[in-house]
Amino acid sequence: MRRNAIFFRRIYLAVTLISCVLQPLTFATSTTKSPYTLKTVVIDPGHGGKDSGCSSPWKTKEKNVTLAIGLKLAEVLKRNQYKVYLTRTTDQFVSLPKRVQLANKYPPDQTLFISIHCNAHSDRRIHGIESYIFDLLPTDEHAATLAKRENAEAEVDLIHFIESSLHKRGSEKFSWDAAKTTQSILVSKLNVKDRNVNAPDGAVKRAPFRVLADTKMPAILIELGFLSNRSEHGQLTSSKRQQQIAEAVALAVKKFDQQTHPQ
Ligand SMILES: [Zn+2]
Fold this sequence. Notes:
By secondary structure, this protein is an alpha/beta fold. The chain has a single domain, classed as Zn-dependent exopeptidases (Aminopeptidase, 3-Layer(aba) Sandwich). The chain is about 45% helix and about 15% strand. It has helices at about 1-20, 60-80, 95-105, 140-150, 160-170, 170-190, 210-215, 230-235, 240-260, and strands at about 40-45, 85, 110-120, 130-135, 205, 220-225. The chain has a 6-stranded mixed sheet with strand order 2-1-3-6-4-5, with helices on both faces. Helix 2 links the parallel strand 1 and strand 2 (about 85). The longest helix is centred in the C-terminal third of the chain and has 22 residues, at about 240-260. The chain is globular and about 45 Å long. Bound molecules: zinc ion.
């Protein structure tokens, strides 16, 4: 475990050093105009098909909740004039590398990737919302366990990561902004517990999620609540609440879009 951590740290340092030497490959550098203009949102409803994701004591499967919310979010975003693509629209299995490949078809300086998930814990009292960006070093033990579970089907490939990290360097700030804005809007609009408050920078959690590692555009992963908690399970499976969640995420997308082009 410890040897793994040291290995990851060395890789991380190597990537950081290389990245400092090379110019960002994806985003143009300009001091007067934001290099990023949001036009397209790629929605990634977690899991699907043979991969059910986590389940609840009430037999709800994560894959069904993420798809229901993803489809509702797509409708709201389209009404807000964004182009929208989903990595799946039915209960089908799509591998994590395939999801990345689908997302990377779109221009990284015009696209936001949002991966939708639900949490679960053996302690049913645990509840709340989390927003993540990619990092090889997880924020805490929970983030590490979570990334392991969400990556169950395909771990982070370090060689691919190093390659894509160079491309992604210019998008990191935007990923952080998108996650921060999304977390704050979800917490206030949905009146839920903010589980990001203990993150070192007080806003955004980090973990080595496979779908975030290789996507070249700004990318976030949101854990919309715990299916293992009775109250949040009731909310996450309610169509009315799913619509409210979709509208809150869409509002966050709109705010993030405005922030990237301040007047
Ligand atoms: Zn998941």
